[in-house]
Amino acid sequence: MIKRITQAVEYIRTKTNDVPETALILGTGLNSIADMIKNPILIPYKSIPNFPASTAPSHVGKMIVGDISGKKVIILQGRVHFYEGYSMQEVTFPIRVLNQLGVKNIIITNAAGSLNENLVPGNIALITDHINFMGANPLIGENYDDFGERFPSMHEPYNQKIRKLAMDIAFENNFIIKEGIYVAVAGPSLETTAECKMLITFGADLVGMSTVPEVIAAIHGGMNVLGISIVTNLSNVFHSEPHSQEEIRKNAAQAKSNLKTLIQELIKRM
Ligand code: HPA
Fold first, then answer.
1. Rounded Cα gap, residues 8 and 13, in angstroms
2. Partners of residue 125 on adjacent β-strands
3. DSSP H stretches of helix in the chain
4. Distances (CA, A) of 6 to 9, 35, 92, 209, 224
5. C-alpha 184 to ligand 1 mean position (Å)
6. Which residues pair with 109 in a beta bridge?
7. Rounded to the nearest whole angstrom, what is the distance from the C-alpha of residue 191 to the centroid of ligand 1?
8. Residue 141 three-state SS
9. Tens-digit pLDDT profile for residues 139-197
10. Whose C-alpha lies nearest to ligand 1, atom 7?
11. C or N terminus of the chain, fewer CB within 10 Å?
12. What topology is assigned to 2-269 in CATH?
């Protein structure tokens, strides 16, 4: 595995010598956030040795290296999911590559369903903690001591200082960000009502099919993590209050402009 990571890193190094401190992973429906990057160098996942290429329709599969707020960043536009049939090692391969490239901070975004009536479609929510309910873990198997220890602590996977900074930025720019616990399920079938009720009793506020493996690998590698969910739908325990498509689109667009502001300011100040 180390050799496969090194091959990918060496290829990326032939495209750019920049060593960005911060990386951003864009989840479902958030590709256009990458528009704000200046002087972009595009590196399709398909061209990077050993890099998993996404099969999901809304995931474009490109690494973009460029400038945001005058700082070098790497954007991963699209990700692969466990439900696509990739192993946990493949799902987290991009994180290992970013780690070896020298990235220190990682902002991981996703689209999520809400299990909490205070989190409604269009909301931006910081992930405060997670529950790994995928039935697998990317660290199972041989431990690569160069990356991290066998039993990495998960006492604070989502960096509190960066979360505080995100909250300050939202306050200064007059928008609200919420917070919640994210539970990761394997998918791809969506949760039944009974499963939603169970996940709520676990203490989860948000449910999705990504992020947690990436966060585990990033923490293993000593990176600082910020997790951001965009609430795209209420889970089916709340069916009594349907939202119109128009309203959801409007909310999502609003979330995207606030998310852009948030990311630009975070990169400037992180
Ligand atoms: N459940 C699981 N994953 C999701 C959902 C959901 O309701 N919405 C977006 N991703």
1. 9
2. 178, 229
3. 2-15, 88-91, 93-101, 160-172, 193-202, 212-220, 245-269
4. 5, 29, 14, 28, 22
5. 9
6. 228
7. 8
8. coil
9. 999 998 989 999 999 999 999 999 999 999 999 999 999 999 999 999 999 999 999 99
10. 113
11. N
12. Rossmann fold (3.40.50)
Alpha-carbon Rg for the chain in angstroms:
18
The residue type at 83: Y
Residue written as token pair 């128009």: 246
Residue-level length of the chain: 270
pLDDT tens for residues 49-106?
Answer: 999 986 666 557 999 999 999 999 999 998 999 999 999 999 999 999 999 999 999 9
Domain range list for the chain: 2-269
Q: Which residue is associated with the tokens 């369903």?
A: 113
Q: What is the value of pTM for the model shown?
A: 0.93
Question: How many other C-beta atoms can be found within 10 angstroms of the C-beta atom of residue 22?
Answer: 24
155 three-class SS = coil
CA distance linking residue 154 with residue 140, whole number of Å: 15
Which residue has its alpha carbon closest to ligand 1 atom 6? 113
Nearest to 134 by CA among 191, 77, 209: 209
Pocket around ligand 1: residues whose beta carbon is below 6 Å from it? 111-113, 190-191, 207-209, 232-233, 235
Which two tokens mark 218?
């990033």
| Location of structure tokens 């490239």 | 101
Cα–Cα distance measured from residue 11 to residue 86, given in angstroms and rounded to the nearest whole number: 22
- Which backbone phi and psi does 95 adopt, to 5 degrees? -65, -40
Say if residue 151 is exposed, middle or buried (CB neighbours under 10 Å; 0-12, 13-18, 19+). exposed
Dihedral of alpha carbons 25, 30, 32, 37, sign: negative
